[in-house]
Amino acid sequence: MKEGNLPNLSLHIERLVLAGLPLAGGQAVQVQRAMERELVRLLGLDGLGRAPGGGAVPEVAAPAIQLSSPFRPAELGRQIARSVHESLTREL
To answer: Is 79 a residue whose pLDDT tops 90?
Structure first.
């Protein structure tokens, strides 16, 4: 599916814990927004794979990510989204 033809998706993340990250000022919001945009994009392209419950997932243990230097909040958000997407769509 092309990105221009993505289905209408609704994403609700009840809780996102970013413990121990060097976030200052509005950087947490930048991380959150970038993560949400990227995750919606990826799910629109690939769907949820074999996730249980029609897409409702109570908890996700995602693969590790690497912080870039210099630190870029938007890039961190995209990395988090890719990691979460990988854990949601990997074969059970």
So the answer is: yes
Angle at which helices 73-89 and 27-46 cross, to 10°: 40
**Cα dihedral 27, 21, 87, 75 sign:** positive
∠ CA(12), CA(16), CA(18), 5° rounding?
155
Tell how far CA 1 is from the center of its chain. Answer: 19
Note whether 65 and 25 are within 8 A (CB).
no
Per-domain residue ranges of the chain: 25-51+64-92
Three-state SS string over 27-67 comes to: HHHHHHHHHHHHHHHHHHHHCCCCCCHHHCCCCCCCCCCCC
The pLDDT of residue 88: 80
Structure tokens at 21: 């990250």
Alpha-carbon distance of 19 to 53, in angstroms, equals 28
- Assess whether pLDDT exceeds 90 at residue 71: no
pTM higher than 0.90: no
